[in-house]
Amino acid sequence: MTGLPDDLTPLLLAIDHVGIAVPDLDAAIAFHREVLGLEVLHEETNAEQGVREAMLGPAGAQPGGAVVQLLAPTGPESTIAKFIDRSGPGLQQLAYRVADVEAVSATLRERGLRLLYDGPRRGTGGSRINFVHPKDAGGVLIELVEPPSTDSGAVPGDRGPVG
Predict the structure, then answer these.
(1) Rounded to two decimals, what is the model's pTM?
(2) Could you write out the DSSP letters of every residue in 118-134?
(3) Exposure of 148 by Cβ count < 10 A (0-12 exposed, 13-18 middle, 19+ buried)?
(4) pLDDT in tens, 25-45
(5) CA-CA distance, 35 to 71, in Å (whole number)?
(6) Which of 18, 35, 124, 143 is deepest in the core (most CB within 10 A)?
(7) Which of these, 120, 116, 145, lies nearest to 131 by C-alpha position?
(8) How far apart are CA 76 and CA 68, in angstroms?
């Protein structure tokens, strides 16, 4: 029993990842690997989002745990490039794992929140994502991440449920 009224049943399953905007992905990976001891769990370029990204976590961590996402812009027009120009490198978003990004997005809209996209977009490793506008979430960009289904074509061994 959660102790919450039926209309406030939790929509979020877990913290999925924390996104950090970086100007140089390779340098950021090297720092997190060599100084902090994290390992790269997944790396890809998402042309639609205009980012080159890497997911990092502790060696030997259980699958499905929260990870760090490093995000580097692929060009000056990407959202991450604009974020870095405005705020400098650093914490860019907090991502929560959800079972159904469309259903959670609809519920949040009903509760008066603005989402950045009308419908889900492709995220890391074939996940489906959307974002809650930071002005509606205490200044925090919240990402909603629906992990890819097992038949999504995700590469075995990839991190999978990350946005």
Answers:
(1) 0.84
(2) SS-EE-GGG-EEEEE-G
(3) buried
(4) 999 999 999 999 999 999 999
(5) 18
(6) 124
(7) 116
(8) 23
